[in-house]
Structure formats: C-alpha cells, structure tokens
Amino acid sequence: MARYELVLPKMGESVAEATIIKWTKQPGDLIDIDESVLEIATDKVDSDVPSPVAGKLIETLYKMDDVVQVGATIAIIETGGSSGGNEVAEDTKEPVKHPEAPKADNSTQTDRAEQLESVSAVSQEQRSNPVADNTSGRFYSPLVKSMAAEEGISTTQLDLIKGSGSEGRVTKQDVLDYINDKDSNATAPVAAIQPDAEPAKIAPPVPKTQPAISEPKTQPAISLSAGDEIIEMDRMRKLIAEHMVMSKHTSPHVTSFVEADVTNLVQWRDKVKSDFEKREGEKITFTPIFMEAVAKAIKDLPMINVSVHGTQIIKKRDINIGMAAALPSGNLIVPVIKNADQLNLVGLTKAVNDLTKRARNSQLKPDDTVGGTFTLTNVGTFGNVMGTPIINQPQAAILAVGAIKKKPAVMETEYGDVIGIRHMMFLSLSYDHRVVDGALGGSFVRKVADYLEAWDINREI
Fold first, then answer.
1. What angle do CA 118, 238, 140 make, to 5 degrees?
2. Distance CA 436, CA 253 (A)
3. What is the DSSP letter of 189?
4. Catalytic site residues?
5. Which of 270, 448, 304 is nearest to 373 (CA)?
6. How many whole angstroms from its chain centre is CA 216?
7. pLDDT (tens digit per residue) in 213-261
C-alpha cells in the first residue's frame, strides 16, 4: 500500500487560497478516480476538488472553514499502487508536514473580493516591501501583508497591532484602524504590476489623497416590527455587497444613454434562429450579438478597455468581456469570455450558452470569472428598459442593454419622414469618470448602437 498526498490544486492565475466549505468524504471512505473529496470556495466561485487516484481516505488535514493555500496538502489517500509524484511510501513512517491552519473569520473570506490586482502581482510587490520577510514568526494573511505594503507599514509595526481575529490574528479591520490613527500626510508606495505585453515603467510613489475609510466598528440598533424576518447574508452576497460598495467608493460613476433601432437585428434573428439551432444545436440569443457589437466598438475606441492603477492608466491588450449572470440563489456572478473579438458569432453564441448553463448549475471554474476587461449586463432579461449598472472593478466601464420594445418611431425616407412601428431598445454605459470623459463614454455607447442599427438583415451565419 502507498499513500497519496492530495493537494489543493491551482484554480486560476489570481487565486492563491480557498476556504473549505465541506468534506464530502470522511476518513475511512473509499474514493474513485475523479470523485469529489471536498467542496471549496474562493472569492469568485465554489467548486469541488476531485481525487486523481482511487483508494481510501486516511486523513483530512484541514477542518471546515479553514483557509488553505494553493499547493498545500489537504488529505492523505491510501492507494493500492504507484500513483505518481505525490505518492509517499507507507513504510517510511514520516508524518506528513502541513502548515498550521488559521481559523477563518468573516474578514478573511470576504476581504479578498476587494483586491483589484492579481495575487501574483501582490507577491511580486512583497519581494521589495517592508513586510515581505516576516521574521517575527507571527502569521499574517496575504491581504494584511498587501495592505501593509501599500501603506508602508513595517513588520515591526505590524507586530505591535493587537489582532481581533481568531487566535489573535491581525485582520483587515485591525490594519484599517491602525492606518486611521497614523498621520494622514503619510505616503504609500505604488504596487508593482504585471503588464500584459511589454514591461511598462511604473510611476514613483505618489502622495495619498485620501485617508483610508473603515467601516463602523458597531452597527446601529435596528428597529423590528412584529413579523419581520432577519436573513443573514450568505458568503457570496457578502462578497457582492463589499465589491459594489468598494466600486462606488473607488470610481466616480457617470452613465450615458442611447436609444437604438434594432428592427433589422430582430427580424434577422427571427429568420435564422430555427435553422441555426438545427445546425449548431444551440439557441442564438441577443446576448452574443450584443457581445459582437461591443467587441467591435472596443477595437474602434480602445481607451474604454482600461483599468486604473494609482495615477496610471493600464490599457488592456486583450478584449475579455464579462457577462453578468443571475444565479438560482438570486446572487450575481460574472463569467468572462476571453478574447471575445477573436470569436465569430457562432463561437460567441456557444461561449455565452456554455457559461450561462454552467453558472446556473454552479459548475463554473475560478478561471471562468477572472481576467475581464469590460462587462455587459442584460437588464432586458427582466423586462427592464434601462439601468445604471455599477462598474465591475478594476474595469473602467460596464454596458447595460435594456428590453427590446415595439414603439412608434420617426423614420426618414426618400419621400419624407414617416412614423412606423419599430423595435427599439436603450443602451446605458456606466464609466469611471477619472479616466473616461463624457466624449469617450458617449461616443462608445453610440458606436455600439450604430453597429446594432446597421445590422445586415441578409447576413449569412
């Protein structure tokens, strides 16, 4: 018999840790190849960890709600033979070494939604910041280290902070409280970033323009009436709430509106949808059509496809369009279509349908929700004619498309203006006014509308 070390697999370029939700197998249970052993949660999605080998689960090294680093051994499986590189001989009697598992608290599980840069970028930053080498022996989470680096807090200063977390661990709130007590004129270094293509010059440290804002330590008393029900937010709703508040606090939102005549588009889809489904085995909705128009408009106006890093504008090379999708639980998730501009309409349709289906069945992988550079949300799905969406940080813009309605509209003809029944819809673009001015924002949403209005009713697909 041999023993196999099951490790927490890599779950995406920006995912460095996960929280154990539930062990689906217990010590003594038999496990088949690719059978789920446990359920984990990241700041993006929930997923299963399957076993790459068959055997018996001997030991679980972490408990429910523990936060585990990617690559850490999480369980021992007894196998009947050679299983690969993670196998350890049973007769060595060497105990499996694994890090002490810090207890997870609410701040650990939710704070990671506020990190706008990838964990890989944070790791590179920590190589040159005052807290990269922690010689005190005290445990600090990656988020606390990142915040300390950004605020110029040394390891010695961190050691003096009294932790309010589990086992005296320093939490994000503890760091924020400490920052608020510091001199508001302090300066913070700009974090290093990983550019998409060629190395870019990073600006020198810039003065902080605003002190950090922390949440109230105590919640005000609530007033309840007879029959009122208190519902605790689930983990995902807490993440969404914090991400939305952070976005509004980070970016000054401006929204521009355009009304588009999409009669040709609607008539074209009605004409081709039956044959398309028979040929491709997929239903063609309006969403991939909107995606195509957005991708074309981004190529025309690439400065909408940016993010902000301090006083720097990061112009994205890839066009990765996220699409907001409602989950059966009522929560929201944004899977991403990578390199959307390189897909034709058939490819976009299949990508949209695949991500929508997996989102509804809770089968998205962490990589499916990272890397977005622009977001599209279809509020028309719920019968809404327009909306003012909140920017999905660290992006700079988000487009909402409303319901398509038949309305009387004035049309110009060679014989003069006439009134006809047309299919009309509103498009609304919310954008970060720090880097996107009204001219660019208004031109972009108008450009998307132009592509939709100019749809060729005889287009082949």
1. 50
2. 10
3. P
4. 433, 437
5. 304
6. 26
7. 445 556 677 788 888 998 888 877 888 888 899 999 999 999 999 999 9
